[in-house]
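Regression check, nicotinamide-adenine-dinucleotide case 369:
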Amino acid sequence: MEALVYPETDKKSGEVKPTAKTMKALVYHGPGKKSWEDKPKPILTAPTDAIVKILKTTICGTDLHIMKGDVPAVTDGRIIGHEGVGIIEEVGNSVSNFKKGDHVIISCITSCGKCEYCKKGMYSHCEDGGWILGNLIDGTQAEYVRIPHADNSLYPIPAGADEEALVMLSDILPTGFECGVLNGQVKPGDIVAIVGAGPVGLAALLTAQFYTPAEIIMIDQDDNRLDVAKTFGATKSVNSASENAIDKIMSLTNGKGVDVAIEAVGIPATFELCQEIIAPGGHIANIGVHGKSVTLHLENLWSKNITITTRLVDTVTTPLLLKTVQAKKIEPKQLITHHFRLDQVIEAYDTFGNAAKEKALKVILTNDN
Ligand SMILES: NC(=O)c1ccc[n+]([C@@H]2O[C@H](COP(=O)([O-])OP(=O)(O)OC[C@H]3O[C@@H](n4cnc5c(N)ncnc54)[C@H](O)[C@@H]3O)[C@@H](O)[C@H]2O)c1
Ligand SMILES: [Zn+2]
Ligand SMILES: [Zn+2]
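Current build output:
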Protein backbone atom coordinates (compact mmCIF):
# COMPACT_ATOMS: atom_id res chain seq x y z
CA MET A 1 0.00 0.00 0.00
CA GLU A 2 1.13 3.53 -0.73
CA ALA A 3 2.59 5.55 2.16
CA LEU A 4 0.12 7.99 3.68
CA VAL A 5 1.29 11.28 2.14
CA TYR A 6 -1.06 14.21 2.57
CA PRO A 7 -0.94 17.27 0.31
CA GLU A 8 0.32 20.53 1.75
CA THR A 9 -2.19 22.98 3.16
CA ASP A 10 -1.76 26.74 3.31
CA LYS A 11 -0.96 27.58 6.95
CA LYS A 12 -3.06 30.75 6.98
CA SER A 13 -6.18 29.79 5.00
CA GLY A 14 -6.08 26.04 5.58
CA GLU A 15 -6.69 25.59 1.85
CA VAL A 16 -5.22 22.57 0.11
CA LYS A 17 -2.37 23.53 -2.25
CA PRO A 18 -2.83 21.85 -5.65
CA THR A 19 -0.19 19.12 -6.13
CA ALA A 20 -0.10 15.71 -7.80
CA LYS A 21 -1.84 14.44 -4.66
CA THR A 22 -4.84 16.71 -5.01
CA MET A 23 -8.02 16.51 -7.04
CA LYS A 24 -11.08 18.63 -7.74
CA ALA A 25 -14.30 17.90 -5.88
CA LEU A 26 -17.71 19.35 -5.03
CA VAL A 27 -17.61 20.19 -1.33
CA TYR A 28 -20.56 20.90 0.99
CA HIS A 29 -19.96 23.83 3.35
CA GLY A 30 -23.24 23.97 5.25
CA PRO A 31 -26.80 24.71 4.04
CA GLY A 32 -26.84 26.51 0.68
CA LYS A 33 -23.02 26.56 0.42
CA LYS A 34 -21.00 24.43 -1.93
CA SER A 35 -17.81 24.87 -3.95
CA TRP A 36 -15.72 23.13 -6.62
CA GLU A 37 -12.32 23.07 -4.98
CA ASP A 38 -9.00 21.25 -4.42
CA LYS A 39 -9.14 18.36 -1.97
CA PRO A 40 -6.61 15.67 -1.09
CA LYS A 41 -6.80 12.76 -3.52
CA PRO A 42 -8.19 9.80 -1.53
CA ILE A 43 -5.81 7.09 -0.40
CA LEU A 44 -6.34 3.48 0.66
CA THR A 45 -7.08 3.35 4.38
CA ALA A 46 -8.03 -0.34 4.70
CA PRO A 47 -6.95 -3.43 2.74
CA THR A 48 -10.57 -3.84 1.57
CA ASP A 49 -10.66 -0.34 -0.04
CA ALA A 50 -10.41 0.62 -3.69
CA ILE A 51 -9.65 4.04 -5.17
CA VAL A 52 -11.85 4.67 -8.20
CA LYS A 53 -11.29 7.36 -10.82
CA ILE A 54 -14.75 8.77 -11.65
CA LEU A 55 -15.74 8.63 -15.32
CA LYS A 56 -19.41 9.65 -15.00
CA THR A 57 -21.49 10.74 -12.05
CA THR A 58 -24.86 12.40 -11.46
CA ILE A 59 -26.90 14.40 -8.96
CA CYS A 60 -29.69 12.84 -6.88
CA GLY A 61 -32.75 14.50 -5.32
CA THR A 62 -31.19 13.46 -2.03
CA ASP A 63 -28.17 15.69 -2.81
CA LEU A 64 -30.58 18.63 -3.09
CA HIS A 65 -31.94 17.68 0.37
CA ILE A 66 -28.35 17.66 1.68
CA MET A 67 -27.69 21.07 0.14
CA LYS A 68 -30.75 22.46 1.93
CA GLY A 69 -29.40 21.15 5.24
CA ASP A 70 -32.07 18.42 5.57
CA VAL A 71 -29.46 15.71 6.27
CA PRO A 72 -27.60 16.89 9.39
CA ALA A 73 -25.24 13.87 9.33
CA VAL A 74 -23.52 15.56 6.37
CA THR A 75 -20.99 18.01 7.80
CA ASP A 76 -18.94 20.96 6.49
CA GLY A 77 -16.15 19.78 4.19
CA ARG A 78 -17.89 16.64 2.91
CA ILE A 79 -17.60 15.72 -0.79
CA ILE A 80 -21.10 14.66 -1.78
CA GLY A 81 -22.55 12.33 -4.45
CA HIS A 82 -23.36 8.62 -4.23
CA GLU A 83 -23.76 7.51 -7.84
CA GLY A 84 -21.34 6.91 -10.68
CA VAL A 85 -19.16 4.70 -12.84
CA GLY A 86 -15.38 4.72 -12.94
CA ILE A 87 -12.05 2.94 -13.43
CA ILE A 88 -10.19 1.24 -10.60
CA GLU A 89 -7.03 3.22 -9.87
CA GLU A 90 -5.71 1.17 -6.96
CA VAL A 91 -6.92 -1.67 -4.71
CA GLY A 92 -6.03 -2.75 -1.17
CA ASN A 93 -4.31 -6.10 -0.54
CA SER A 94 -7.47 -8.00 0.28
CA VAL A 95 -9.59 -6.87 -2.67
CA SER A 96 -9.88 -9.94 -4.88
CA ASN A 97 -12.73 -9.18 -7.32
CA PHE A 98 -11.16 -6.09 -8.92
CA LYS A 99 -7.80 -4.86 -10.21
CA LYS A 100 -6.37 -1.60 -11.55
CA GLY A 101 -8.01 -0.66 -14.85
CA ASP A 102 -11.34 -2.45 -14.29
CA HIS A 103 -14.47 -0.46 -15.15
CA VAL A 104 -17.05 -0.50 -12.34
CA ILE A 105 -20.50 0.66 -11.24
CA ILE A 106 -20.34 2.30 -7.82
CA SER A 107 -23.29 1.28 -5.62
CA CYS A 108 -24.84 4.01 -3.49
CA ILE A 109 -24.84 1.45 -0.68
CA THR A 110 -21.54 0.24 0.82
CA SER A 111 -21.66 -3.31 2.19
CA CYS A 112 -19.15 -5.66 3.79
CA GLY A 113 -21.01 -8.80 2.64
CA LYS A 114 -20.16 -10.50 5.94
CA CYS A 115 -22.23 -9.02 8.78
CA GLU A 116 -25.62 -10.27 9.97
CA TYR A 117 -27.58 -7.77 7.84
CA CYS A 118 -25.48 -8.32 4.72
CA LYS A 119 -26.00 -12.09 5.06
CA LYS A 120 -29.74 -11.41 4.95
CA GLY A 121 -29.30 -9.31 1.78
CA MET A 122 -30.08 -6.15 3.74
CA TYR A 123 -26.99 -4.23 2.58
CA SER A 124 -28.64 -0.93 3.49
CA HIS A 125 -28.13 -1.84 7.14
CA CYS A 126 -24.57 -3.22 6.82
CA GLU A 127 -22.88 -2.84 10.21
CA ASP A 128 -19.84 -1.28 8.51
CA GLY A 129 -21.56 0.44 5.58
CA GLY A 130 -25.08 1.25 4.38
CA TRP A 131 -25.66 4.68 2.85
CA ILE A 132 -22.37 6.29 3.84
CA LEU A 133 -21.07 7.53 0.46
CA GLY A 134 -21.46 11.29 0.08
CA ASN A 135 -23.03 11.25 3.53
CA LEU A 136 -20.69 9.99 6.29
CA ILE A 137 -17.66 9.59 3.99
CA ASP A 138 -16.56 11.50 0.88
CA GLY A 139 -18.58 10.74 -2.25
CA THR A 140 -18.53 10.59 -6.02
CA GLN A 141 -18.88 14.21 -7.25
CA ALA A 142 -15.08 14.34 -7.49
CA GLU A 143 -12.26 13.13 -9.71
CA TYR A 144 -11.54 10.18 -7.39
CA VAL A 145 -13.40 8.37 -4.62
CA ARG A 146 -12.40 5.82 -1.97
CA ILE A 147 -14.81 2.86 -1.87
CA PRO A 148 -14.69 0.76 1.32
CA HIS A 149 -15.48 -2.98 1.05
CA ALA A 150 -14.82 -2.71 -2.67
CA ASP A 151 -15.44 -6.41 -3.40
CA ASN A 152 -19.10 -6.11 -2.40
CA SER A 153 -19.79 -2.41 -3.11
CA LEU A 154 -18.67 -2.24 -6.74
CA TYR A 155 -20.02 -4.13 -9.77
CA PRO A 156 -17.99 -4.96 -12.89
CA ILE A 157 -19.10 -3.30 -16.14
CA PRO A 158 -19.25 -5.73 -19.06
CA ALA A 159 -17.04 -4.81 -22.04
CA GLY A 160 -18.84 -2.68 -24.62
CA ALA A 161 -21.65 -1.61 -22.26
CA ASP A 162 -23.08 1.91 -22.41
CA GLU A 163 -21.45 3.21 -19.23
CA GLU A 164 -23.51 6.38 -19.09
CA ALA A 165 -26.74 4.39 -18.88
CA LEU A 166 -25.24 2.27 -16.09
CA VAL A 167 -24.97 5.32 -13.79
CA MET A 168 -28.72 4.74 -13.30
CA LEU A 169 -27.85 1.43 -11.63
CA SER A 170 -26.02 3.09 -8.70
CA ASP A 171 -29.24 4.19 -7.01
CA ILE A 172 -32.47 4.99 -8.85
CA LEU A 173 -33.15 1.73 -10.71
CA PRO A 174 -32.57 -0.53 -7.69
CA THR A 175 -34.55 1.96 -5.56
CA GLY A 176 -37.61 1.97 -7.84
CA PHE A 177 -37.40 -1.79 -8.28
CA GLU A 178 -36.66 -2.96 -4.72
CA CYS A 179 -38.61 -0.42 -2.63
CA GLY A 180 -41.47 0.03 -5.13
CA VAL A 181 -41.97 -2.98 -7.41
CA LEU A 182 -40.65 -5.88 -5.34
CA ASN A 183 -42.02 -4.63 -2.01
CA GLY A 184 -45.31 -3.76 -3.73
CA GLN A 185 -45.45 -7.32 -5.15
CA VAL A 186 -46.56 -6.17 -8.59
CA LYS A 187 -48.21 -9.10 -10.41
CA PRO A 188 -49.52 -9.78 -13.95
CA GLY A 189 -52.89 -8.07 -14.43
CA ASP A 190 -52.47 -5.70 -11.46
CA ILE A 191 -53.50 -2.07 -11.49
CA VAL A 192 -50.51 -0.10 -10.23
CA ALA A 193 -50.44 3.57 -9.24
CA ILE A 194 -47.11 5.38 -8.91
CA VAL A 195 -47.29 8.70 -7.08
CA GLY A 196 -44.33 10.86 -8.16
CA ALA A 197 -42.87 10.83 -11.68
CA GLY A 198 -39.35 11.89 -10.72
CA PRO A 199 -36.37 9.69 -11.64
CA VAL A 200 -37.24 7.22 -8.86
CA GLY A 201 -40.94 6.97 -9.76
CA LEU A 202 -39.97 6.56 -13.42
CA ALA A 203 -37.49 3.82 -12.46
CA ALA A 204 -40.38 2.05 -10.69
CA LEU A 205 -42.46 2.53 -13.87
CA LEU A 206 -39.76 0.94 -16.07
CA THR A 207 -39.17 -2.04 -13.77
CA ALA A 208 -42.86 -2.66 -12.91
CA GLN A 209 -43.29 -3.67 -16.56
CA PHE A 210 -41.17 -6.82 -15.94
CA TYR A 211 -44.37 -8.19 -14.34
CA THR A 212 -46.89 -7.13 -17.03
CA PRO A 213 -49.40 -5.25 -14.85
CA ALA A 214 -52.64 -4.42 -16.69
CA GLU A 215 -52.48 -0.69 -15.90
CA ILE A 216 -49.87 1.71 -14.58
CA ILE A 217 -51.35 5.04 -13.52
CA MET A 218 -48.79 7.80 -12.98
CA ILE A 219 -49.62 10.70 -10.65
CA ASP A 220 -47.63 13.96 -10.50
CA GLN A 221 -48.14 17.72 -10.66
CA ASP A 222 -45.73 18.25 -13.55
CA ASP A 223 -47.27 17.73 -17.01
CA ASN A 224 -43.86 17.33 -18.65
CA ARG A 225 -42.97 14.44 -16.34
CA LEU A 226 -46.40 12.88 -16.90
CA ASP A 227 -45.83 13.09 -20.67
CA VAL A 228 -42.43 11.42 -20.24
CA ALA A 229 -44.11 8.71 -18.14
CA LYS A 230 -46.53 7.97 -21.01
CA THR A 231 -43.58 7.38 -23.35
CA PHE A 232 -42.04 5.06 -20.70
CA GLY A 233 -45.12 2.83 -20.58
CA ALA A 234 -47.63 4.49 -18.21
CA THR A 235 -51.15 3.64 -19.42
CA LYS A 236 -52.88 6.57 -17.66
CA SER A 237 -51.74 9.78 -15.98
CA VAL A 238 -53.30 12.05 -13.38
CA ASN A 239 -52.19 15.62 -12.66
CA SER A 240 -53.02 15.96 -8.96
CA ALA A 241 -52.60 19.76 -9.10
CA SER A 242 -55.32 20.28 -11.71
CA GLU A 243 -57.73 17.42 -10.95
CA ASN A 244 -58.97 15.51 -7.90
CA ALA A 245 -56.61 12.52 -7.91
CA ILE A 246 -58.78 10.32 -5.65
CA ASP A 247 -61.94 10.79 -7.74
CA LYS A 248 -60.04 10.29 -10.99
CA ILE A 249 -58.33 7.08 -9.85
CA MET A 250 -61.57 5.69 -8.42
CA SER A 251 -63.35 6.37 -11.69
CA LEU A 252 -60.48 4.76 -13.65
CA THR A 253 -60.77 1.61 -11.47
CA ASN A 254 -64.58 1.19 -11.33
CA GLY A 255 -64.56 2.45 -7.77
CA LYS A 256 -62.29 -0.37 -6.56
CA GLY A 257 -58.92 1.37 -6.25
CA VAL A 258 -55.48 0.03 -7.17
CA ASP A 259 -53.73 -3.24 -6.30
CA VAL A 260 -50.38 -1.56 -5.73
CA ALA A 261 -49.74 2.08 -4.73
CA ILE A 262 -46.10 3.14 -4.89
CA GLU A 263 -45.23 6.36 -3.05
CA ALA A 264 -42.23 8.08 -4.69
CA VAL A 265 -42.43 11.66 -3.40
CA GLY A 266 -41.90 11.64 0.39
CA ILE A 267 -44.55 14.05 1.75
CA PRO A 268 -47.67 13.40 3.90
CA ALA A 269 -50.16 14.30 1.10
CA THR A 270 -48.86 11.63 -1.27
CA PHE A 271 -48.71 8.86 1.36
CA GLU A 272 -52.28 9.76 2.38
CA LEU A 273 -53.31 9.57 -1.29
CA CYS A 274 -51.94 6.01 -1.42
CA GLN A 275 -54.12 5.11 1.58
CA GLU A 276 -57.21 6.55 -0.16
CA ILE A 277 -56.76 4.71 -3.46
CA ILE A 278 -55.68 1.25 -2.29
CA ALA A 279 -58.06 -1.64 -3.08
CA PRO A 280 -58.78 -4.43 -0.56
CA GLY A 281 -55.81 -6.82 -0.43
CA GLY A 282 -53.55 -4.16 -1.89
CA HIS A 283 -49.94 -3.20 -1.21
CA ILE A 284 -48.73 0.31 -0.36
CA ALA A 285 -44.98 0.43 -1.04
CA ASN A 286 -43.30 3.54 0.34
CA ILE A 287 -40.12 4.76 -1.37
CA GLY A 288 -40.09 8.46 -0.42
CA VAL A 289 -37.78 9.83 2.27
CA HIS A 290 -40.19 11.40 4.79
CA GLY A 291 -39.17 14.28 7.02
CA LYS A 292 -42.61 14.74 8.61
CA SER A 293 -44.98 12.31 10.33
CA VAL A 294 -47.93 11.04 8.31
CA THR A 295 -51.36 10.04 9.61
CA LEU A 296 -52.03 6.32 9.31
CA HIS A 297 -55.79 5.85 8.67
CA LEU A 298 -56.25 2.53 10.45
CA GLU A 299 -59.90 3.46 10.98
CA ASN A 300 -60.34 2.85 7.22
CA LEU A 301 -57.61 0.33 6.55
CA TRP A 302 -57.89 -2.15 9.46
CA SER A 303 -60.36 -4.39 7.61
CA LYS A 304 -58.96 -3.99 4.09
CA ASN A 305 -56.16 -6.62 4.24
CA ILE A 306 -53.57 -4.02 3.27
CA THR A 307 -49.80 -4.49 3.39
CA ILE A 308 -47.66 -1.40 3.94
CA THR A 309 -43.91 -1.66 3.34
CA THR A 310 -40.93 0.64 3.82
CA ARG A 311 -37.34 0.13 2.66
CA LEU A 312 -33.99 1.82 2.26
CA VAL A 313 -32.62 0.55 -1.04
CA ASP A 314 -30.30 -2.44 -0.57
CA THR A 315 -28.95 -2.55 -4.15
CA VAL A 316 -29.01 -6.37 -3.98
CA THR A 317 -30.76 -6.40 -7.38
CA THR A 318 -28.01 -4.47 -9.20
CA PRO A 319 -26.57 -7.59 -10.96
CA LEU A 320 -30.09 -8.66 -12.04
CA LEU A 321 -30.90 -5.16 -13.31
CA LEU A 322 -27.58 -5.01 -15.18
CA LYS A 323 -28.61 -8.16 -17.07
CA THR A 324 -31.97 -6.61 -18.01
CA VAL A 325 -30.19 -3.47 -19.29
CA GLN A 326 -27.69 -5.56 -21.28
CA ALA A 327 -30.60 -7.53 -22.76
CA LYS A 328 -32.36 -4.22 -23.62
CA LYS A 329 -35.41 -5.15 -21.52
CA ILE A 330 -35.13 -1.68 -20.00
CA GLU A 331 -33.38 1.40 -21.33
CA PRO A 332 -32.25 3.57 -18.42
CA LYS A 333 -30.58 5.98 -20.84
CA GLN A 334 -34.07 7.45 -21.38
CA LEU A 335 -33.81 9.01 -17.92
CA ILE A 336 -30.81 11.18 -18.93
CA THR A 337 -31.84 14.67 -20.08
CA HIS A 338 -28.72 16.84 -19.61
CA HIS A 339 -24.92 16.52 -19.95
CA PHE A 340 -22.18 18.57 -18.28
CA ARG A 341 -18.44 18.27 -17.69
CA LEU A 342 -17.63 17.37 -14.09
CA ASP A 343 -16.07 20.81 -13.57
CA GLN A 344 -19.46 22.35 -14.51
CA VAL A 345 -21.09 20.67 -11.52
CA ILE A 346 -22.33 23.93 -9.97
CA GLU A 347 -24.19 24.75 -13.21
CA ALA A 348 -25.53 21.18 -13.25
CA TYR A 349 -26.94 21.70 -9.73
CA ASP A 350 -28.74 24.84 -10.94
CA THR A 351 -30.32 22.90 -13.81
CA PHE A 352 -31.27 19.90 -11.67
CA GLY A 353 -32.53 22.18 -8.89
CA ASN A 354 -34.97 23.76 -11.41
CA ALA A 355 -36.09 20.42 -12.80
CA ALA A 356 -39.63 21.47 -13.80
CA LYS A 357 -38.47 24.60 -15.68
CA GLU A 358 -35.45 22.88 -17.24
CA LYS A 359 -37.39 19.65 -18.01
CA ALA A 360 -34.60 17.80 -16.22
CA LEU A 361 -34.60 14.19 -15.06
CA LYS A 362 -31.05 12.90 -14.62
CA VAL A 363 -27.97 14.98 -15.46
CA ILE A 364 -24.70 13.26 -16.41
CA LEU A 365 -21.36 14.77 -15.35
CA THR A 366 -18.35 13.51 -17.30
CA ASN A 367 -14.80 13.65 -15.94
CA ASP A 368 -12.64 14.65 -18.91
CA ASN A 369 -9.33 14.63 -17.02
N1 LIG B 1 -36.08 4.60 -0.01
C1 LIG B 1 -34.91 4.84 -0.60
O1 LIG B 1 -33.95 4.10 -0.43
C2 LIG B 1 -34.76 6.01 -1.51
C3 LIG B 1 -33.65 6.08 -2.36
C4 LIG B 1 -33.55 7.17 -3.26
C5 LIG B 1 -34.52 8.18 -3.25
N2 LIG B 1 -35.56 8.08 -2.35
C6 LIG B 1 -36.63 9.10 -2.30
O2 LIG B 1 -37.54 8.87 -3.34
C7 LIG B 1 -38.29 10.08 -3.58
C8 LIG B 1 -38.33 10.38 -5.07
O3 LIG B 1 -37.02 10.66 -5.54
P1 LIG B 1 -36.79 11.46 -6.93
O4 LIG B 1 -35.31 11.61 -7.09
O5 LIG B 1 -37.59 10.85 -8.00
O6 LIG B 1 -37.40 12.89 -6.49
P2 LIG B 1 -37.95 14.13 -7.33
O7 LIG B 1 -38.04 15.25 -6.38
O8 LIG B 1 -37.16 14.29 -8.60
O9 LIG B 1 -39.42 13.65 -7.79
C9 LIG B 1 -40.54 13.79 -7.00
C10 LIG B 1 -41.75 14.02 -7.90
O10 LIG B 1 -42.89 14.20 -7.07
C11 LIG B 1 -43.71 15.19 -7.65
N3 LIG B 1 -44.57 15.74 -6.60
C12 LIG B 1 -44.25 16.65 -5.64
N4 LIG B 1 -45.32 16.89 -4.86
C13 LIG B 1 -46.34 16.13 -5.34
C14 LIG B 1 -47.69 15.96 -4.96
N5 LIG B 1 -48.23 16.62 -3.93
N6 LIG B 1 -48.44 15.09 -5.69
C15 LIG B 1 -47.92 14.41 -6.72
N7 LIG B 1 -46.63 14.53 -7.12
C16 LIG B 1 -45.84 15.38 -6.44
C17 LIG B 1 -42.74 16.19 -8.26
O11 LIG B 1 -43.34 16.96 -9.27
C18 LIG B 1 -41.63 15.28 -8.79
O12 LIG B 1 -41.83 14.94 -10.14
C19 LIG B 1 -37.59 11.16 -2.73
O13 LIG B 1 -38.29 11.32 -1.51
C20 LIG B 1 -36.22 10.55 -2.49
O14 LIG B 1 -35.57 11.10 -1.36
C21 LIG B 1 -35.69 7.02 -1.50
ZN1 LIG C 1 -29.72 8.97 -4.44
ZN1 LIG D 1 -22.23 -5.82 6.23
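Comparison notes: The longest strand covers residues 50-58. Residues 173-309 form a domain with the Rossmann fold fold (CATH 3.40.50.720). No diff flagged against the previous build.
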